[in-house]
Amino acid sequence: MYPSRDHTALTRDDGEMVVDARVINDMKLHLNEAEFWLVIEHLYAVGIANGPIPSGAPRRLVDTWPPVRHF
Fold it and tell me: Among candidates 23, 18, 16, 14, which has minimal Cα distance to 5?
């Protein structure tokens, strides 16, 4: 979930820029537009089904699910 920057307009005006997760840009690179929107719709549906994210301390998956490789 590394941050990435993305322009919201065709111009390279940095005032028209947003920050997103690197995985979103990777999906746009590897999927065609129909596949991309299918994944987005699925993620939205899963988010709605699971409800709001609970407040409080975030879970640290590193403690319970360490990565296989460290880069």
Answer: 18
